[in-house]
Amino acid sequence: MFSATLGELAGVAGRRSVRGVLLPSLVFCCLALLVIATGRGSAHDALHAWRQGSWESKVLVVAGFVLALVCVATALGNAQTALIRLAEGYWSPPLRRTIGRLGRGHHRRLVRRADDASTHDRYPPRTRPDDIMPTRIGNALKAAELYPRLRYGIDAALVWPRLHPLLPDTFLTVLGAARTGLTALLASAFLSVVLAVGGAAYLWAAHAPTPLFLLCLWGGGLAAWACYRGALLRAVVYGQHLRVAFDLYRGHLLEAVGRPVGDGEDERAHWERLCLFWHRGILPHHVATPDRPAPPNPDPTPAQAPPGFCPSISHLTAAAFAAAGLAGALTGAG
Questions:
Q1: Which residues of 73-91 are buried (b: 16+ CB within 10 A; e: fewer)?
Q2: Please, are residues 231 and 80 in contact by the beta-carbon 8 Å criterion?
Q3: Which of 7, 54, 100, 237 is spaced 20 to 30 Å from 91 by Cα?
Q4: What 3-state DSSP class applies to 127?
């Protein structure tokens, strides 16, 4: 049973890797190869050169393509978390103070003008304008992050790593599929931007025809926009699954840590005490005591010097001169 479970998990992980990393990387490498081939001439000329080439050159081209595919897929797989944070709006201070400020101001105006029903799953509540993010994906995920805190008093950043291992396999499959769809579309949007900018720069440097240059630039930009719009819908779905996880399975975590909510006990206050314990180590039943002024420290008594010993600057100077004289005598004698 254990080996079968491992096989199923490996199969799911493999499908997610193919969908979220390998497939976008393959499409990007194929399009990049097409741009490079057409930049040096027409597609017919590139195909003719491939047919007339030796088998050694064909092997080198295929090996280079596979190596590029592996490098792109590896880099993309390691950068999934960074891509999500970039799409959310967690930027460096220069961008956060310029573009980020403009984006937050724009979305705050949208929230003020829209009704609660249209912004429920896509934006934080109106009462928390400081939590507005500069991007739509960031606002959708921020709304899901604030949901357990506003509803149950749960700090999602603290509780989620402890709750995730307790979720059933069926729910984990659905949750993983939603996250894989989000990361795959974000990766496709990022690679589309890279292809549009890099391919257009290459075609311009190679003096390619203007229609081909515009097709690469505008086509890549349009593909990036479409992938970002799809990623926004996936972010909303992923946020809904996160809300469901806290709604249905938060009690499993309380039972696992041995602190279920008792009869008549406020669940919100119970979660707040538990999160405070996980965050700062304060016991859930800790009672704060009033601060007491510290007793004044007694005046330190001066250290007693050994009898007959009274160091002074003159003594130290004499000792230093004696040591220097001794060193000079030994040097002269040598």
A1: beebeebbeebbebbbbbb
A2: no
A3: 237
A4: coil
Residues 262 and 58: their CA atoms lie apart, in Å, by 71
b/e 289-317 (16+ beta carbons within 10 angstroms → b): eeeeeeeeeeeeeeeeeeeeeeeeeeeee
The span from the CA of 230 to the CA of 207, in Å, is: 34
pLDDT tens digit string along 66-123? 899 889 988 888 888 899 999 999 988 888 889 989 999 999 998 888 877 778 888 9
Sign for the pseudo-dihedral over CA of 180, 182, 185, 191: negative
What is the rounded average pLDDT for all residues in the chain?
78
Which of 187, 186, 197, 185 has its CA nearest to residue 221? 197
